[in-house]
Amino acid sequence: MPDEFAKSSQHSLQRGSTVRIALTSFGTRGDVQPFLVLALALQARGHDVILAAPPNVVEWAARCGVRTERIGFDTQAYMDSSEGQALFASGNVRAIMKRMQALMHEHQDLLMADQMRICDGADVIVAGVLTEDHSAVMAEAQGSPLIALHLAPLKPTGDFAHSLVTTRDLHSRLLHRLTYTVVEHMWWAAHRDSIALLRRRMGLTPTRQPTQKRLAAAGLCTLQAFSPQLVPRPSDWDPMQRVIGAFQIPKSARASLGEAASPPHLTAWLEAGPAPVYVGLGSMPVGDPVKMLNLLSEVARRCGRRLVVSAGWSRMAAPQEPSPEIRLVGAVDHDWLLPRCSAAIHHGGAGTTHAVVRAGLPSVVASVFADQPFWGTRLMRLGLGCHVPFKRLTSDSLKRGLCYVSEADAVARAAAFAARMRSDPDPVSAAVQLIEESRLITVHYPS
């Protein structure tokens, strides 16, 4: 059992009361990593766990000793394609959503077959946003509870608008709630035929109710895996929306993934000068690595800063040796590297955002899609950084951003905020408890 989970509280089910739990996730590493953390914790409690992940992430997740099964198609292959790079670089939310929905439709038979195989016989199913609809059908067919795991606030609220519609304050609780209705209708229109087909295959009657409404009617909870410091619990959410905090990957898993050791060449470079700015693009594709590196080198020279660039899963390779101001690294342990940095430039993914804020760094967020603009705007409003959409990223806009996050006030705010965030209760233990307790209730899905 990993040391990080050895002290998990003895709640709900006694050790030895094994529960079969299927965790279904889809997307990039950032989408799958929280499920891997949860799978490790549940496995340490003695449960029979299976983790579903897209083919490009399966081998990565399996290194941690979790039983992992492939689901659907290779998401990274599309993001690395010329079409995918151009689409995401455009920042056109409507076009991106339309193409993603088309891809899901093209592969719906594979996705359904994988869901049926992975969820078969599960006592509890935990699903991400992109697998929630099909997983909910499987849970209903088996009479099992389904718990949704969200990495950003997606449930209707009057406090702020849906992140896929706008990040602006509409100054109206009614208008804010209407944005969620718009997204729900769009999502249901895109997925209802696929859901109807899977319901027929599982022997269920047709339904006109969107998945979210059915889950709410069944009284099932959603694990809101983000920090209440960054997003205070919306005032109008019902008790089944459990804001538990963001998951951190344990050190034992980092070691299994080959990310725990500090690279000697990087350590030497860090010690040879002032604390650099961290640059992380997560799983977002970089269409022109040479152009991106030239942009970063220019900004580093103009600002007199050093940059450590984590290419991560964006697969940005250096065509030549970086300039003295730049150091390129692959996937690296955020917990080790970020405290050695002075600020961060990143895409605004939920995991990276929480890691950067927890480390006390002010941010320049260059968002691309999905919840990334939400997190960029959230940090801006909290005084923890600034937000520049990726498609508007230039030498001048990046220089202005770095100047802002270098100001003493921004640095002080980030440090104070990090101290509050680090005091959050352990979200993994809370999630495990809620999942174990869900097995003890009888679920009544609406007819």
TrEMBL record:
<feature type="domain" description="Erythromycin biosynthesis protein CIII-like C-terminal">
    <location>
        <begin position="324"/>
        <end position="436"/>
    </location>
</feature>
<feature type="domain" description="Glycosyltransferase family 28 N-terminal">
    <location>
        <begin position="21"/>
        <end position="111"/>
    </location>
</feature>
<protein>
    <submittedName>
        <fullName>Glycosyltransferase</fullName>
    </submittedName>
</protein>
<dbReference type="InterPro" id="IPR002213">
    <property type="entry name" value="UDP_glucos_trans"/>
</dbReference>
<dbReference type="InterPro" id="IPR010610">
    <property type="entry name" value="EryCIII-like_C"/>
</dbReference>
<dbReference type="InterPro" id="IPR050426">
    <property type="entry name" value="Glycosyltransferase_28"/>
</dbReference>
<dbReference type="Pfam" id="PF03033">
    <property type="entry name" value="Glyco_transf_28"/>
</dbReference>
<dbReference type="Pfam" id="PF06722">
    <property type="entry name" value="EryCIII-like_C"/>
</dbReference>
<dbReference type="InterPro" id="IPR004276">
    <property type="entry name" value="GlycoTrans_28_N"/>
</dbReference>
